[in-house]
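The instructor's notes for this session suggest beginning with a concrete chain rather than abstract definitions. Hand out the sequence below and ask the class to guess, before any prediction is shown, which regions might be ordered.
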Amino acid sequence: MVLPRLRAGGTLLDLGSCLGQDIRKCIVDGAPAERIFASDLFPEYEDLAYSFWRDRDKIPADHFVADNILADNDDFVTGPLMTRFGPGQIDIISITMFLHLFDYLNQLKTAARLLRLLSHKPGSMIVGSQAGSIIAGEQPLKPPFDGTESGTRRTVFRHNPSSFERLWKKAGRAAGVPLKVSAVLQAPEEFPDGVDSGFDFATKLRRFRPGTQTRRLYFSIMRT
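After discussion, reveal the predicted structure:
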């Protein structure tokens, strides 16, 4: 679904790219590097990624855009992402393991801004996966990640398919963007042999246990 569109001239933005492993997988699979972009909060990731992957000659340096998706509105509108792309210019936005880092209100804020970047063409889409839960709701973070500068306690919102669809439909209505939202939960034991579910390492850290509500949420949000 993604690769054919990139080969046909579409553009992809990987938001929350970290060291850019996902965009490099796309390029290895045959996507043209000139159609792929990455963004994260920390500009240091660009040089770290080039040093780690040793591919500075393969990916243009100006294809990494450091920006804060949760910046104040004036700063976001005049910031690197909107300046580099402008509204309605990205065909596919990937947000793998990203949105679940925030509480509900900041997820809604992020969704609204992603819809500003997403192409106006029907079929443009936002795709990814993240930590989800059978029972949706705010979950408190554990120390040392639970505090804020104001002294309030931090939470993150974990979605099930229904709550995830409601979030995006609410963002779409506010932006006047019609959306088709698809989401599904998958448990660790449902992954085929040889497929990394992302749960094995976390289980060793005793964050997840058999019988908990935690699942992996896979999703797509398509402009109709």
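Then share the key points. The chain has a mean pLDDT of 90. Residues 161-175 form the longest helix (15 residues).
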